[in-house]
Amino acid sequence: MRGLAGRSGDTLAGPGQNTIATRGLLWSTIKRLAPYLWEYRLRVGFALASLIVAKAAGVAVPLVLKDIVNDLDSDHSALIVPVALLAAYGGLRFANSLFGELRDLVFARVKQRAVRRAATTVFRHLHALSLRFHLDRQTGAVARDIERGSRGIALLLNVLLFNIIPTIVEIALVAGILIAKFRFWFAVITFCTLALYVGFTLFVTEWRTVFRRSMNDMDSRANNHAVDSLLNYETVKYFANEDYESGRYDAHLAQWENAAVKNQSSLAFLNAGQAAIIAAGTTGLMLLAAQGVAHHTMTIGDLVLVNAFLIQLFMPLHFLGFVYREIKHSLADMEKMFALLDAPIDIADAPGAGDLTITRGEVRFDHVAFSYGGQPLLDHVDFTVAPESTTAVVGPSGSGKSTVMRLLARLYDPEDGCILIDGQDIRTVTQQSLRQVIGIVPQDPVLFNDSLYANIAYGRPGASLDEVREAAELAHLGRFIAALPKGYETRVGERGLKLSGGEKQRVAIARTLLKRPRILLFDEATSALDAASERVVQEGLALLAQRRTTIVVAHRLATIQHADQILVMREGRIVERGRHRELIALGGLYAELWALQQETHRPPRTDPTPALKALGQ
Question: Does the structure show a pLDDT above 90 at 192?
Answer without folding.
Answer: no
